[in-house]
Amino acid sequence: MDIKDKCALVTGGASGIGFSCASELLRHGAKCVIIIDQNNVAGLEAKEKLKNFGDKRTVFFPCDLTNKEQFSDVFRKANEICKGLDIVVNNAGICDEQHWDLMIDINFKALVRGTLLTLDCMGKHKGGKGGTVVNVASIAGLTTLGSLPVYSGTKYAVFGFSKGIEIFYNSTGVRVLTLCPGVTKTNLVEEMNDKLLDFVDVEATKKRLGSLPLQETSAVAAAMMKMITTAKNGATWVIEGDKPPYEVQIPHYSTLKV
Predict the structure, then answer these.
(1) For residue 120, which phi and psi values (nearest 5 degrees)?
(2) Structure confidence at residue 108 as a pLDDT band (50, 70, 90)
(3) Which of 19, 166, 254, 256 is most buried as measured by Cβ atoms within 10 A of its Cβ?
(4) What's the chain's average pLDDT?
(5) Of 111, 157, 142, 107, whose CA–CA distance to 246 is shortest?
(6) Which helix (H) or strand (E) holds 134?
(7) Catalytic residue, candidates 151, 156, 169, 246
(8) DSSP 183-206
(9) What letter would DSSP give residue 176?
(10) 169 counts as catalytic
């Protein structure tokens, strides 16, 4: 897919990885980028920062992704503004083990809803033109980070859901891509230690995360642009430590027999 003149929507696009992705989409020539974020102040600031790409090329909608009706309404408004979305990035996520039920609602349930709304709008089976959805998981969805059992669980779920949806490409015409970033410099990582379960060792968690390669949000955004433009339906890519992204394939479970 060529990003130029395409319309995109990014959830959690007001900061962190989402903002960097919105910036890169515009830099690659996207006609319009819709930012959805719960933080109204950050969303308006993000829109202001992106004005240098053109006043009318960025639209911001405040939205609580856990509110089914609100999310559905905002999504359909975005699709109408664009006269058809081409790219959707389900990026919004939190890491708060103490509020694990909310984390499941945002990291997984909202992502599922965002994907299904995408298929409703883009899907050829619904009269759409097809397109691309990128579901942002994590390396924590490929290998469990012991200090973050619920967070890892939500990201495993994102991976599994994406694998289940991608097989319908022939009828929907929508590529389903999964991006798994490593540890990235965002508020999510910086505030993590105050949001662990009470039996988790904070110092051990800091040591474990500190041993993993750290990267900038710009590296994740660059990997996502490459993925959108070159990856085949069903691809799962890892990006970590500011190094080039690489594709991973999960072996059939029978090969794991011991």
Answers:
(1) -65, -40
(2) very high
(3) 19
(4) 94
(5) 142
(6) strand 131-136
(7) 151
(8) SBSSHHHHTGGGGS-TTS-HHHHH
(9) E
(10) no
